Amino acid sequence: MHQRRVVVVVYSGAQALDIAGPIEVFDTANRRLPETGARYRIEFVSADAPLVRTCSGMVVAAEPLAAGGGPIDTLLVPGGWSLKDALADRELVAWIHQAAARSRRVVSVCGGAFLLAEAGLLKGRRATTHWAFCEEMAQRYPDVTVDREPIFVWDGRFVTSAGVSTGIDLALALVEADHGAAFALEVARFLVLFFKRNGGQSQFSAVLDAQLADRAPIRAAQEWILAHLELPLPVPEIAERANMSLRNFARVFRREVGTPPAQYIEQMRIARARKLLETTDLPVAQIARRCGFPAPETFFRSFGRALELTPNEYRQRFQTVSPAGHVVRPGPSDRSTV
Fold this sequence. Notes:
The chain is α/β, with parallel strands linked by helices. The strands form three sheets. It has a seven-stranded mixed beta sheet with strand order 5-2-1-6-7-11-10, with helices on both faces. The protein has a two-stranded antiparallel ribbon with strand order 3-4. A two-stranded parallel ribbon has the order 8-9. It is built from 15 helices and eleven strands. Strand 10 and strand 11 form a beta hairpin. Helix content is 46%, strand content 14%. The longest helix has 19 residues, at 261-279.
């Protein structure tokens, strides 16, 4: 029977869920596959073999790195709080580089993308990692195009995923590529996952947790934007409200918030639209108006660019239904908050 060899690289202080999440998906797939299906053979290798303690204390039994020789179907590299030490381990980094050449596909979870980049595997490629470390990764590896929005990025035979639990989404995507969408959904249902997210789904915290600026005029501008998203919100008028020149406002806003004013406004509009799609049954055109998009077509373009889903596709995947089976309708507070 044909088997797909999955080699997981573990190291002291690795994130337990980065490892356990994906392999539970592969193991569940094995148990749901028909007798003729190509199963996943999961192996663990480590420079710290035979027993490797993760950052949460879970211990993984692993073979030495040398046991990972030969052809590999999927090479999986997790992140972890000890990533700094792992990046300095030249034996580990060199082995990842060498093993990648023998692998059909190479995937990382969370900070594991740093190890792939350190090994020179992501040069000239698009990749992602945990939203909190995207900027650091972009600065450390300027030859990598770091995308902080998607939960995973597929570039050729390299697949990088965002923070921690997104390794489950990545593994489901790999199962889908190997065995089809219907089977991947069956695995997701068996794991009692509420939904199966596609790679375009945004890392929620990257947008919704955008922090308020320290400087009072910029913070006040942010608060005003959030309270008036249904308005046109031209940036020159917002700068005028902040008693700043347009040029200075744009410069200070970007420094304080991390994005230009117009991009921030669009992000907050998309964030509100997502909330309304998740929690209401309002028509899409009405949601577009409430979020300040001049026309439904503009909303569709912006939403698709941000999430790689149409608003209707997003609603089908993520709409929240009450225990009674009804979609929650918006109250007054929903019209003034993201």
